[in-house]
Amino acid sequence: MSGKPKVPSYFPTGVGLLHDPSLNKGTAFTEEERDALKLRGLLPPHVHTMEEQVMRVMGNFRRTPTPLEQHVNILGCQARNETLFYRVVIDHLEEVMPIIYTPTVGEACQKYGHIFMRPRGLFISAKDRKRIANVLRGWPHRDVHVIVVTDGERILGLGDLGADGMGIPVGKLALYTACGGVHPTHCLPVTLDVGTENEELLSDPLYIGLKQRRLRGAEYDEFIDEFIGAVQEVFPDALIQFEDFGNQNAFRLLQKYRDRVCTFNDDIQGTGAVVVAGLFAAPLITGGSLVDQTFLFLGAGEAGIGIGDMIVGAMRDEGLSEDEARSRCWFVDSHGLVVKSRQDLAAHKIPYAHDHPPADNFLGAVEAVRPTGIIGVSGQPATFTRAVLEAMARINERPIVFALSNPTSKSECTAEQAYQWTEGRAVFASGSPFDPVILGAQKFVPGQGNNAYIFPGVGLGVVVSGARLVTDEMFSAAAKALADQVSAEDLKVGRLYPRLSHIRDVSAHIGAAVATIAWKRDLATVPRPADVLEYVKSEMYQPDYKSYV
Ligand code: NAD
């Protein structure tokens, strides 16, 4: 269960206790605890409340000049006192989340070896073949329920960052706890270091990973297989979330394991669900419904195809045939419009190849397809140009524009450009956060189609029900639950997602929706409670100090 970790069999005292982040309370240890736990003299005499400690952490955080330094600063708090860290993150989520996750985590990964102070999570390298289970046994917590794993090949839109990609599993699991209430000791970040093709890293003396080319082919597959088997042996209750794998591996591995291991790929399925939730909400502003839309994607990778597949599923649920639904989803990749006559298409693009003349640039494709919405998942900045956005505004009264590439520097357009170049008519969402935009007398608050709305709730639902598998139906239920949380007030300012400050409540609803599917489909291993939502809420971790005496 997420809220109730097992009591550790060994309880440290003295300096050992102060250096244990999952137990440390710092200056908040009470007089009685200081006596009983050999802390006298090791702490300054004044006993602080948690509120006072939060004040100190946020004061330091706000005085820190750059986002990257803030990232290092706040992760320092996580390394010292986890309970305090989660109190800070939960109470200041809108301010802190862009620092612990996108966009700042991207910069942190790019400079990981240079800002590295102490390890976090498990690094499992190609040198660990034939002993991965032993490496997993070295993790200090036995009761692991969620593993986020990357091989660092496609970190956000930043490419191959090898072992420096560890910032992503660490950041995502912090959000599992902060947003989804999964207990921190139930979370395990893992980086599989199978080498890197990044020349800069290979020649950087401060790079933290193996200085070798990536494992490929059978060697790579055997390594992943050993890892999956080892997790099942050592942490049999763990959900495995694949994160930021290159797309040639991501689709294959998902297909290979999804029906026999409790696993999902957030870049494919989590993205699909969060975007579809936004697309359920968009017609509440533009009019019509999801089935009336035609979407043109820029980018046909994990995110694009994941979203396409979820849209097709949602349109089928609303009565369209598979073919009709697919005919409403079009893709442009780096070689142009995805059409039947092309000979160079990877398998995951073929179901979306339409019988249509080619178009070799995005503007041409917009003019040919005349979509109601464009969805940017290419990792290529400034590709929703003025001409593209003006064309969308000419074709549609209220064009849907989702510029989802992360981090901010890779976004297909900015929020300001989207509103300005469509005369304020765009219904806009982005992958990384943008500030509100004022245009004339109107204020627009762009929604962030952040996967953090979905994966913590999905994980929570899987953990509390003890689900054996993660299914597409669970992601559809998650998307619907998220869209249901968008208020009239959100829609009034053009925001297609609930405020981030409501995210724990949103995650509880998603968790309940996902767990309900687990019980309905006989995938759960925990008995069904009478009130699923109340049960899910009661299982969520709260960062409060417990008394140790
Ligand atoms: P990917 O590498 O699997 O796919 C990228 C796709 O973009 C490929 O199909 C590639 O052919 C295409 N592409 C590259 N250059 C192009 C160009 N000039 N014109 C047209 N297409 C081009 O990556 P992915 O996992 O699909 O992620 C893509 C982007 O989406 C990343 O920036 C990522 O951060 C972002 N993303 C955002 C969210 C979110 O906001 N919720 C979630 C997942 C991914």
Please provide a written account of the structure.
The mean pLDDT is 95. Strand 9, helix 19 (386-395) and strand 10 form a beta-alpha-beta unit. The chain is an alpha/beta fold and 549 residues long. The longest helix is centred in the middle third of the chain and has 18 residues, at 217-234. Helix content is 44%, strand content 10%. The protein folds into 3 domains: 14-261, Rossmann fold, CATH 3.40.50; 269-449, NAD(P)-binding Rossmann-like Domain (Rossmann fold), CATH 3.40.50; 453-538, Rossmann fold. Residues 154, 156-157, 247, 267, 271, 274, 298-304, 332-334, 377-380, 404-406, 410, 431, 449-451 line the site of nicotinamide-adenine-dinucleotide (NAD).
The CATH architecture name of the largest domain reads 3-Layer(aba) Sandwich
Distance between the termini: 25 Å
Number of DSSP strand runs: 14
Task: Give the strand order of the largest sheet, numbering strands 1, 2, ... along the chain.
Answer: 8-7-6-9-10-11-14
Spell out the CATH superfamily of the largest domain: Malic enzyme, N-terminal domain
Instruction: Supply the number of structural domains.
Output: 3
| Percent of sequence in beta strands | 5-15%
Ions and ligands: nicotinamide-adenine-dinucleotide
Largest sheet: 7 strands, mixed
Structural class: alpha/beta
Mean pLDDT: 95
Portion of residues in helices? 40-55%
Radius of gyration: 23 Å
Question: Helical region count?
Answer: 25
Provide the CATH topology of the largest domain. Rossmann fold
CATH top level assignment of the largest domain: Alpha Beta
